Amino acid sequence: MKFSDLNLNTALLNALDERGYTTPTTIQHRVFPVVMSGRDVCGIAQTGTGKTFAYLLPLLRLWKFSKDKNPQILIIVPTRELAVQVVESVKELTTYMSVVAIPIYGGVNINTQWKDLQSGQMYWWLRRADCMT
């Protein structure tokens, strides 16, 4: 199986191709159709198997076709470090999409983060806490 078999849009396929990703991992190809169908999924896999891309790829694929004027996606993660890592993954995948991603987390000035959220652009609010970590 290749990423092109997942019915991803051209922007996502180009971003994956530029980074040398051609074949989805087991968690990625198993999770993708479940998320695309609208069902909930709980995926458990070892570190380094591509879990972040497993949920980001279908979310970004679905976001492309959102009818909302300002669609938003909230991802909750347990640590600041993981929030930053997820934002970097979003940036990797959205090179050819108009998505702005920012992490929101504690221990820093909330006013700066609130100002970013109020700017009226598309933002991802990251702080993921489910079983796909």
Structure description:
There is one protein chain. The chain is mainly alpha-helical and 133 residues long. It has a single domain (3-126), classed as Rossmann fold, CATH 3.40.50.300. The protein has helices at 10-18, 26-36, 51-63, 80-93, 110-117; strands at residues 73-75, 102-103, 124-126. Strands 1-3-2 form a 3-stranded parallel sheet, covered by helices on one side. Strand 2, helix 5 and strand 3 form a beta-alpha-beta unit. Helix 3 crosses helix 4 (80-93). The two termini are 24 Å apart.
Under CATH at level 1, the class stands as: Alpha Beta
Major beta-sheet overview? 3 strands, parallel
* Classification by helices and strands: mainly alpha
Q: How many whole angstroms does the radius of gyration measure? A: 15 Å
Task: Please state the overall shape, judged from the principal axes of the Cα atoms.
Answer: globular
- What is the N-to-C succession of helices and strands? HHHEHEHE
Which percent range fits the helix content?
A: 40-55%
The rounded distance between the terminal residues' Cα atoms is 24 Å
Indicate the low-confidence ranges by residue numbers: 120-133
